[in-house]
């Protein structure tokens, strides 16, 4: 699966997208920019591995403090913050752990990822919690990217 169809649909609708990724390390935006036409629909992308930079990009610190960085609430705020920052139609927020503990954020399951796609035009959030259990980070990232593609296609069609 790839972003080719998504880019085409966004181009036809003159819609844009932005991403704020954590555990995927920019994997989603990389997959988008691997396709022709990405520059017409991609407004901005941020890889915010640390809590500090999630907050600097607009995620309320109190949300991270209350729900942890590994939560759907944080993914929701990431998707909303990046949409606002980039003035895009859609924003993707992804946070979670890929089978590894985080000494800076010890709470949360070590193999759960939270994805939220915000549709600004309809003020609607599309959410998915997924378990990642592939043997490598690379395969887990691919699994997450494939899920984002399916979610986006369902949203924009």
Question: If you had to describe this structure to a student in words, what would you say it looks like?
Answer:
The protein is α/β, with parallel strands linked by helices and 157 residues long. It has helices at 4-13, 27-33, 38-41, 51-56, 61-67, 72-86, 137-156, and strands spanning 17-21, 42-47, 90-96, 112-119, 124-131. It has a 5-stranded mixed sheet with strand order 2-1-3-4-5. Helix 1 runs parallel beside helix 7. It starts with a helix and ends with a helix.
Please write out the topology.
Blueprint: H1 4-13, E1 17-21, H2 27-33, H3 38-41, E2 42-47, H4 51-56, H5 61-67, H6 72-86, E3 90-96, E4 112-119, E5 124-131, H7 137-156
Parallel strand pairs: 1-2, 1-3
Antiparallel strand pairs: 3-4, 4-5
Short key terms for the protein model shown above:
five-stranded mixed beta sheet; alpha/beta; 157 residues
Kindly summarize this structure in a few lines:
The chain has 157 residues and is an alpha/beta fold. The protein has helices at residues 4-13, 27-33, 38-41, 51-56, 61-67, 72-86, 137-156; strands at 17-21, 42-47, 90-96, 112-119, 124-131.
Strand order of the largest sheet: 2-1-3-4-5
Any guess at the CATH architecture?
A: Alpha-Beta Complex
The CATH topology corresponds to Maf protein
Structural class: alpha/beta
């Amino acid at each position: 699966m790839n972003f080719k169809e998504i880019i085409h649909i966004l181009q036809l609708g003159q819609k844009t997208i932005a991403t704020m990724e954590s555990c995927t390390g920019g994997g989603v935006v990389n997959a988008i920019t691997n396709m022709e036409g990405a520059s017409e629909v991609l407004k901005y992308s941020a890889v915010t591995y640390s809590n500090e930079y999630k907050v600097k990009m607009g995620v309320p610190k109190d949300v991270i403090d209350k729900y942890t960085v590994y939560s759907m609430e944080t993914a929701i705020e990431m998707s909303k913050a990046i949409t606002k920052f980039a003035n895009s139609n859609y924003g993707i927020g992804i946070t979670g752990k890929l089978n590894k503990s985080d000494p800076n954020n010890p709470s949360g399951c070590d193999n759960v990822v939270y994805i939220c796609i915000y549709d600004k035009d309809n003020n609607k959030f599309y959410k998915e919690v997924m378990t990642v259990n592939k043997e490598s980070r690379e395969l887990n990232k691919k699994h997450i990217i494939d899920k984002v593609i399916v979610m986006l296609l369902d949203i924009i069609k």
